[in-house]
Amino acid sequence: QGLYSSVVCPGLVMSNMTYRILPVFLWKLLMPIMWLVSGCTAVFVKAPLGRFASSAWVWLFKQKPEYLDSLVKYHSCTSGLGKCYVEPRKMDVDEDTAEKFYQKLLELEEQ
Predict the structure, then answer these.
(1) Quick one: 76 exposed, middle or buried, by C-beta within 10 A (0-12, 13-18, 19+)?
(2) Is 12 helix (H, G, I), strand (E, B) or coil?
(3) I need a labelling partner for 73 at 20 to 30 A (CA). Which of 31, 85, 87, 92 fits?
(4) Burial of 45 by CB count in 10 Å (0-12 exposed, 13-18 middle, 19+ buried)?
(5) SS3 assignment, position 100
């Protein structure tokens, strides 16, 4: 029916929801460490309020769905210099189990 689904990870986004997980004083201690670590790893989205967190969603929207891999998770990432990009990573999914779930969904749709 032309319906496609993809798995997207926005990365670690520092938003007001994130700040509610721990007390404010702990964030003040952790933030300098997180900024240092974010220069070494791509999974941190460093923009304030998650400005680039949707980069994977926007990138996916611009792709032809039939060319996307259904067993891949698309991650919003930033380089050490703050450049945003999307990184596909293979999910640890058993293809036979995935096919069984898909067939079950088709059965449920018919009901």
Answers:
(1) buried
(2) strand
(3) 31
(4) buried
(5) helix
Note whether residue 43 is domain-resident.
yes
Determine the structural domain holding residue 44 and report its residue range: 7-110
Which segments of 1-40 does DSSP mark as H helices, in order?
Answer: 16-19, 24-38
Residue 1 lies in a domain: no
> Token digits for 72?
């891949």
The length of the chain, given as a count of residues: 111
Place of tokens 């689904």: 5
* Percent of the chain's residues with pLDDT above 90: 4
Q: Is the pTM for the entire model greater than 0.70?
A: no
pLDDT digit string (tens) for 74-100? 888 777 666 778 888 888 888 888 889
